[in-house]
Hints:
Shape: globular
Largest sheet: 7 strands, mixed
Number of helices: 2
Amino acid sequence: MIRVPPILSALAFAAAGGKEKHWIGWQEWASLPDLGYERLRVKIDTGAQTSSLHVWRVRPEGMTEDENGEPTPLLRLQLDSDGAGGGAKRDILTPLVRHVMVVGSSGRRQRRPVIRTRLILGPVEKVIEVNVTNREAMQFRMIIGRTALGTDFIVDVNREFLLGLPRRAQR
């Protein structure tokens, strides 16, 4: 096992090829500004390919056009107001990207809708795809999987909150 000195673990470094990578812990604070979450505690799950976000309810809500003028289904998602699971709920409309088959933590296969949203994780801001489902029974309202992490991060599973609180998104 490679030990990283604590002072270095919070710093970014350039890997071979020059792309900057950031150390993150097994849980971090993230922001999903397009969904109204300024701060959301997330689990970094390198065992999951996809990311998953808790919604109370998902309903089809008509159609819209994508950037190419193609008809795209809309979803009405019922989200927590603050991302902590308590308080009022709120609805948002967002385009459906596609459906995926996911093997959940119970081992059962489930067909889930996928949306796109901005993720801010430390200094990195990117658009990711997230499947939405009811995660009411789970400890974390969101898991971030390998696809969303991409090559931007290195995960230290023995540490947490290495990135601090998320920065404010530019609207």
